[in-house]
């Protein structure tokens, strides 16, 4: 009887799971529409009074995206004021939609990885999981791995899709 061998366990593949970099903190969308007069205009005096009186501690440890869903022109300083009040409490605050927030969270997490650990390695970037990892994160991890990895694959170690293989130097 032939012995069954687990070739995946014996391989030199390094599995990289982007879900490990998914920030599990609560996501909050703050819509400036609520601060507009008749959903048209941001009145500075009223807005500054709101900024002063509002309890910003409710954003403690949250990931906050600042948007305006109304068709109004929001002055840049309004976003700056909001960021200055929310940032001391939040894990992260950005001006942009939920997708931009997810991208910023992954950008922040991926920037902390020491990619030299993947030098000349065969890396499998795991796909499909229980957290919503944006396509941005897969593109960004590929870009960051390119200078180091010998090869990059997508999927699971038992079933991968080749993405990149370091070019072999040709001898003439």
Please tell me about this protein's structure.
The chain is of the alpha/beta class and 172 residues long. It contains 5 helices and 7 strands, in the order αββαβαβαβαββ. It has 2 domains: 7-23 and 106-165, no CATH class; 27-90, no CATH class. The protein starts with 6 loop residues before the first helix and ends in a 7-residue tail after the last strand. The strands form 2 sheets. A 4-stranded mixed sheet has the order 1-5-6-7, with helices on one face. Mean pLDDT is 91; it is low at 5-10. The chain has helices at residues 7-10, 44-53, 76-86, 98-110, 135-145, and strands at 13-16, 27-31, 63-67, 92-95, 122-125, 151-156, 159-165. The chain is elongated and about 80 Å long.
């Amino acid at each position: 009887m032939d012995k069954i061998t687990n070739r995946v366990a014996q391989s030199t593949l390094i599995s990289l799971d982007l879900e490990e970099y998914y920030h599990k903190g609560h996501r909050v969308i703050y819509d400036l529409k609520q601060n507009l007069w008749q959903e048209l205009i941001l009145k500075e005096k009223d807005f500054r009074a709101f900024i002063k009186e509002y309890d910003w501690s409710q954003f403690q440890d949250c990931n906050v995206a600042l948007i305006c869903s109304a068709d109004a022109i929001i002055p840049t300083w309004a976003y700056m004021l909001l960021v200055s009040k929310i940032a001391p409490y939040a894990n992260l605050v950005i001006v942009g939609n939920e997708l931009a927030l997810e991208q910023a969270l992954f950008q922040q997490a991926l920037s902390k990885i020491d990619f030299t650990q993947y030098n000349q390695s065969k890396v499998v970037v795991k796909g499909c999981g229980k957290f919503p990892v944006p396509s941005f994160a897969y593109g960004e991890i590929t870009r960051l791995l390119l200078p180091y990895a010998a090869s990059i694959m997508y999927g699971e170690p038992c079933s991968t899709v080749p993405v990149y293989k370091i070019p072999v130097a040709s001898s003439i």
